[in-house]
Amino acid sequence: MARKRIPVETGRGNGFADLGYADARERTLKVELAMEVNRLLRERRLTQAASASLLGILQPHVSDLVRYRLERYSVERLMDFLVRLGRDVEIRVRPRTGRASRPAVRVLHGA
Question: pTM of the entire structure?
Answer without folding.
Answer: 0.77
